[in-house]
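Researcher: Batch entry, complex prediction.
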Amino acid sequence: MLNVGKIEEGFVLDHIKAGGSLAIYHQLGLDKLDDMVAIIKNAPSEKTGKKDILKVECDIDALDLDVLAFIDHNITVNVIKNGEIKEKRSLVLPREIRNIIHCHNPRCITSIEQGLPQIFYLADENREIYRCRYCDERYRKRDGEL
Amino acid sequence: MNGLRHLMTPMDFTVDELERLFDKAIDIRNDPAAYRHVCDGRILATCFYEPSTRTRLSFETAMLRLGGQVIGFADASSSSSVKGESVSDTIRVVSCFADICAMRHPKEGAAMVAAAKSGIPVINAGDGGHEHPTQTLTDLLTIRSLYGSLSGFTIGLCGDLKFGRTVHSLVKSLVRYSGIRFIFISPPELRMPDYMRDMLDLKMIPYEEVIRLDDCLPDLDLLYMTRVQRERFFNEEDYVRLKDFYILDREKLSRARENMHILHPLPRVNEISVDVDDDPRAAYFPQVQYGLFVRMALIMTLLDMTDDHMNKGLLKW
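Model: Structure tokens for the complex:
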């Protein structure tokens, strides 16, 4: 069994779908952080057999984690302070998502206009439906996407 | 959007603002001479990246009848877009020349992108299959004038409800009024998109989806016919299969109420037979004229031409 030590201050993102940690690593901009990050792949899980875990040693206000709710509702966020779990943070669907996903509508202006931010708004919270700010097309996940 | 007033969707105006706009349009209709010089010295740019006759001519006529002038292009091939210029850059340039811009573009959301970068008011004159707000203002003014109210009726929308941006904009606008029941008449391939049905479901607005026009005709106060648009199809075969799905002729019309009104955003191809044109229920040509009056009122509104401005002749230049 691989052992990764405790962190003093930061986050533990648990119950990430197995194999999904690297995408989240990039999505949260962890590659740009100067802090210590541990990516644990295929850790044993009672619920799903395997899961990924991310441990991030950083200021707890340094990251915007709302987007995680859009990526995967099952992820749990443990906020660590002084080596202890200070809070289990619940994830809330963001009202708007910027530059995380792309509009697939070939008729959308984002398909030809350079440099446009990709913006999606939360159209239906209960059904977790996001729509493109420009063309109102519903976002549907494709293979290999978040 | 940089403090300017734009029109991207009909929802950009409140119901009260629409009432004032329609009142202004009717005032223009009743006394056009009073408005002949209110836009003296102003310039409208019509940036049309795809072909249009009615909408472009209506905008240009509206500005000319208000005393202003018009510049612009009528298709993408005569614009810098063929050189690869972005919509954002084009509107920045146009903002240096004109006081207001009407933009039609085949890509959905193009006018919104323009408005975000523009130094002048932008009117969405149609963005792909998405929105066509000035057609909606036209439709609302026509309904208000002919039916006498924007509440308490059953309206059938027939034809291409999938790509038909006029019906999307009209439905989104009508849900703000009370007592309206929708009947969507289309082949399954061209049914109302999911986001429109989601919106109606969320607001608990009653609607039915039917395939046959004949069955629901007697129930309708208003019938909004649409054309199946060749330019919205990637596949010619699908277009040919669906283009003649609905044809309203005099025989079919005999089942409709005597006081029903028939609207159509035009151009029609053959979905309304010419033998219907003389029927008093045919409202699609008067509708064009309402479109002119409402665009005149819209230009004045977005240029913030209050009565004070009109009286004092205040100009930007």
